[in-house]
Specification:
The chain is of the alpha/beta class. The chain folds into two domains: 102 residues, Arc Repressor Mutant, subunit A, CATH 1.10.10; 298 residues, Alpha-Beta Horseshoe (pyruvate-formate lyase- activating enzyme). The protein is built from 16 helices and 21 strands. Strands 10-11-9-8-7-6-5-2-14 form a nine-stranded mixed beta sheet, with helices on both faces. The chain is globular.
């Protein structure tokens, strides 16, 4: 049996399985209402005064809906709802700082969405000033913003630069006109190149492009052409995601023609073709779905075994506390996870009344921490010293590896090897690292939620 045939067989067997992306463990479906505003206030009050924070601010508004989107966002052609939301968001910033009890040091800030740059320049600057009043921002190493090149204005680019922007992430997805029409996102090459040039001039030190494979009408040829064109622009990083078709949860995805979606074999072929194109252009494969230039911080972190994974994907951020601000935002504390109300109205009502908007969360157990360590190292390094991690947590290694049916199957199929307590994912099968990680997920399939396919 040839390697191509063998890989095709593996894709057929595992590729259609729906699994979490493991940007956290346990994953969000395990969160419950037992963690509320009172619990979160206590957790904020217990943060050490020497611990730097990471901040994530969620801006859940866009001007139009991209039909592939899996984010929590609202379409608004008017500015009034956005202004109202920003007023509430600034109020939450104050409430969180008040609960901490001081202007805590911040190491990184990430604006996500939605479309954060839907704000006007003066509104963004005002929000940044609110952060500066509530937190100690003098030592911020990274200020990152997610950007839609179609709506980015020169004035906003200038404002981002003045605020200290260090990293920008641009949505690209596909340059194929047929695919763009099928996902309701028309974006020219010129718009993307213009946004990148402006951000470089404004001082952005690192720029990421998001690409997606598995979109309707997408082919290997069109995926390669998009990657080739994008690589000529020389962004510092790429994040390449597989489209997750979950119309039961995201109703706007029902506008996508399911008959135009490729199967697991086609998705895998597109993903590998994009990877080969980017590697040939000088980018290094980082983790499951990121690519970076050799001198980028992600490449350095990967070489040192210091790569991490959080809700924004692969990162160099090693902060133990992530404060989520805004509707649906998720935070990570030393004790576990917290999430704000998803509905903008309920979020705004609670914050406006002076209450934190935490609606659910999860308190970590010792076993959770141990499994989370195993999963993160697998996702970042494709290998993990299970014996060493279980020893730290005083947990029997056999409890993870013995009678583990999926792990035994993966070992038998050559997807992984286990020697001396070290589990390694075979280089040819790294696209199945989420499948390997799922072997150590004690809660898999208990939440009733549909995830993205493994390939």
């Amino acid at each position: 049996m040839t390697n191509d045939t063998r890989t095709g067989d593996i894709v057929s067997r595992y590729g259609e399985t729906r699994l979490p992306r493991y940007t956290s463990y346990p994953t969000a479906p395990r969160f419950s209402g037992s963690i509320g505003a009172g619990s979160y206030r206590d957790l904020l009050g217990s943060i050490s005064d020497t611990e730097p924070l990471s901040l994530y601010l969620h801006v859940p508004f866009c001007r139009s809906m991209c039909w592939y989107c899996g984010c929590h966002t609202t379409i608004s052609q008017k500015d009034a709802p956005i202004l109202d939301y920003l007023t509430v968001l600034k109020r939450e910033v104050h409430l969180v700082s008040e609960a901490i009890g001081r202007r805590q040091k911040v190491s990184s800030i990430h604006f996500g969405g939605g479309t954060p740059t839907i704000m006007k320049p003066e509104e963004f600057c005002d929000l940044k000033q609110s952060l500066d009043r509530a937190f100690h921002l003098d030592q911020v190493a990274e200020l990152a913003v997610e950007i839609d090149p179609r709506t980015l204005t020169p004035d906003m680019t200038e404002a981002l630069g003045a605020a200290g922007l260090t990293r920008a992430s641009l949505g690209v997805q596909s340059f194929d006109p047929k695919v763009q029409k099928a996902i309701n996102r028309i974006q020219t090459i010129e718009q993307t190149a213009g946004a990148l040039a402006g951000l470089r001039k404004a001082g952005a030190q690192s720029i990421n492009f998001d690409l997606i494979y598995g979109l309707p009408h997408q082919t290997v040829a069109s995926a390669v052409e998009t990657a080739r064109i994008a690589a000529t622009m020389r962004p510092d990083r790429f994040a390449v995601f597989g489209y997750a078709h979950v119309p039961a949860f995201k109703k706007h995805q029902r506008l996508i023609d399911e008959k135009a979606l490729g199967d697991a074999q086609e998705r895998h072929a597109q993903a590998e073709a994009i990877a080969d194109t980017l590697v040939a252009a000088g980018y290094r494969r980082i983790g499951l779905d990121h690519f970076a230039l050799p001198d980028d911080a992600l490449s350095t972190a990967a070489d040192r075994g210091e790569l991490h994974r959080n809700f924004q994907g692969y990162t160099t951020d090693d902060s133990q506390t992530l404060i989520g601000l805004g509707a649906s935002a998720i935070g990570r504390m030393s004790e576990g996870y917290v999430q704000n109300d998803v509905a903008i109205g309920r979020y705004a009502q609670r914050i406006s009344s002076g209450e934190l908007a935490t609606s659910k969360g999860y308190r970590l157990t010792g076993e959770d921490r141990m499994r989370a360590s195993v999963i993160e190292r697998l996702m970042c390094d494709f290998r993990v010293d299970i014996e060493a991690i279980t020893r730290v947590f005083d947990y029997p290694m056999e409890a993870l590896t013995k009678t583990n049916t999926m792990l035994e199957t993966l070992l038998r199929d050559g997807v992984v090897s286990l020697k001396g307590g070290i589990l390694t994912v075979d280089t040819r099968h790294r696209f199945l690292v989420r499948t390997v990680a799922s072997c150590f997920d004690a809660y898999l399939n208990q939440g009733g939620r549909t995830h993205a396919t493994a390939a």
